[in-house]
Specification:
The chain has 147 residues and is mostly helical. Helices cover 54% and strands 5% of the residues. It is built from 6 helices and 2 strands. A two-stranded antiparallel sheet has the order 1-2. The longest helix has 23 residues. It is elongated and about 65 Å long.
């Protein structure tokens, strides 16, 4: 699995929203500046995340985007799926039942694929948030958060 820019930026945006005190909305501009992301691209990603029900848009002077549910209820797998990322390790291929090595390799990749998928759906946005905070603290950094 390769995490593309699309997936990376989506996770960064979601982590920025998770940082908002009391789940207050954050503008596209504010997220883009805090995470060093291009605002037009970020806006497209946030629309996809909204369609998936992971964020909601708030209109008005103090509007922007906010998490649609608790960070503990949003998985990394859901974020990546929302923006069209795939967890397929290799192109779909048929195994050759006549060759034992091919069968073993095919079975191994299927098991790894399943474990990866389970891991992505078991890692919550909250887990990522605390991991990043712990790493920053171990580096003696302030809680200014850029992924």
């Amino acid at each position: 699995m390769k995490l593309t820019t699309r997936g990376h930026y989506s996770v960064k945006a979601m982590l920025a929203l998770a940082l908002q005190p009391d789940n207050k909305p954050a503008s596209v501009k504010a997220i883009a500046q805090s995470q060093n992301l291009p605002a037009p691209y970020l806006e497209k990603l946030l629309l996809e995340l909204r369609r998936a029900g992971l964020v909601r848009a708030v209109r008005g002077r103090v509007g922007g985007y906010q998490l649609a549910r608790a960070a503990s209820q949003i998985s990394l797998g859901q974020i990546l799926e929302a923006v069209g990322e795939t967890v397929e390790p290799l192109p779909q291929r048929q195994r050759n039942a006549k060759q034992a090595e091919d069968w073993v390799t095919f079975t191994l990749w299927n098991h790894l694929h399943q474990k990866l998928k389970e891991a992505l759906y078991n890692i919550s946005l909250e887990d990522l948030y605390y991991d990043a905070r712990s790493w920053q603290a171990s580096q003696g950094q302030q809680t200014n958060f850029i992924v």
